[in-house]
Amino acid sequence: MAQAELIMPKMGESIMEATILKWLKKPGDKIEQDESVLEVATDKVDTEVPSTYAGVLKEILAKEGEVVKVGKPIAIISTEAVQEKTQAPTPEPLTTKTVEVETKSIPLVQASTNGHTPITDYKSSIRFYSPLVKNIAKEEGIAVAELETISGTGLEGRVTKKDILGYVQNRKLGKSIAATPSVAAIPLVPASINAGDEIIQMDRMRKMIAERMVDSKRISPHVTSFVEADVTNIVFWRNKMKNEFQKREGDALTFTPIFIEAVVLAIKDYPMINVQVDGDKIIKKRDINIGMAVALPSGNLIVPVIRNADQYNITGLAKVVNDL
After folding, report:
1. pLDDT in tens, 229-263
2. Ranges of H-type helices in 115-203
């Protein structure tokens, strides 16, 4: 009986790892193809992972609560099906035509300005690349490792046609667009624990919140500005309208959607607030997305995003806020 590895699947373009919540099968259990084997959680979704093979679960490689990188093995499955798949057919003798094609392709590889073999297999990459970007990378001889260093300006950091063409142009001019520099690791100072102190292991949610707080400190400019505003008329208007609004819409009218609408109007008046800095470039965002802090019953605090907030009126914003 052959053996196959069950790997942590790719569940999204920006998802690099997942936490194992619960194993639904134990060693020795029979598994059908596409049957759920375990539950995992990412910073965006909780989901079940199906088996890619039918067979018997032989060994679990990652424990519950463990964080596993995408593409890493998490279990071993004994199956007969793998043996059939792994037996490659006897290769046919190369024809003269095939040899000629291979001979012609050699100068193209050698012509690469970086000395890397062009990308032909994207299984080693956890980023998403469109067919157009793949074709450009192949034509320009850009290898997987080099393509990974290109900073993408598309959705969730996706590399666009403009990104890769700009990279190619700079490379031909002898310039190099370096990958985003990694932040130097800050030495951790051991916490001082005194007698009577209680140590609480953080759950997955608190770990994610801590990671996002650190990321925010690294990538976002921290500037505080205090401005006083007289909102007396807003208070009067809200007190006058809240009962009628509740009856008509079935939702409470709080101050939050009013303040969100004020932020949206401010961004429209001063669009340079809504920008992203990428190296020496400023990316002016078209969409106006507003994050709103929400306290959970567990005591955790999350920041869901209201996308395209400028497309809602005050009624729509109130409903979205109440849904959150």
Report:
1. 899 999 999 999 999 999 999 999 999 999 999 99
2. 131-140, 144-148, 161-172
Could you give the CA distance from residue 115 to residue 109 in angstroms, rounded to a whole number? Answer: 8
268, HSE (Cβ side, Cα atoms, 13 Å) = 10
The torsion angles phi and psi of 253, rounded to 5 degrees, stand at -100, 105
Residue 161's contacts (CB-CB under 8 Å, 6 or more residues apart) are 130, 132, 133, 136
Q: Please state the rounded mean pLDDT for residues 275-279.
A: 81
Task: Considering only residues 215 and 98, tell me which one the structure prediction assigns the higher pLDDT.
Answer: 215
H and E: helices and strands count for the chain: 9, 14
Domain ranges in the chain are 2-86, 96-172, 207-323
CA distance 236 to 254: 12
Q: What pLDDT score does 124 carry?
A: 53
- The full 3-state SS of 169-183, as one line of letters, equals HHHHCCCCCCCCCCC
What is the Cα–Cα distance from 293 to 230, expressed in whole angstroms? 23
Integer Cα distance of 131 and 149 in angstroms:
18
Tell me the C-alpha to C-alpha distance, in Å, between residue 270 and each of 196, 228, 281, 314: 53, 18, 19, 20
Q: Cα-flanking dihedrals φ and ψ of residue 27, to 5°?
A: -55, 135
Q: How far apart are CA 79 and CA 38, in angstroms?
A: 18
What are the tokens at 158? 């996706």
> Considering the domain 2-86, what is its CATH architecture?
Beta Barrel (2.40)
Sequence-distant (≥ 6) Cβ neighbours of residue 240 within 8 angstroms: none
CATH number of 207-323: 3.30.559.10
Q: What is the C-alpha separation between 40 and 72, in angstroms, rounded?
A: 14
Please tell me the distance from the alpha carbon of residue 206 to that of residue 212, in angstroms, as a whole number: 10
> CA geometry: angle at 23 spanning 18 and 27, to 5°?
125
Span between the terminal Cα atoms of the chain, in Å: 51
- In whole angstroms, give the CA distance from residue 284 to residue 276: 7
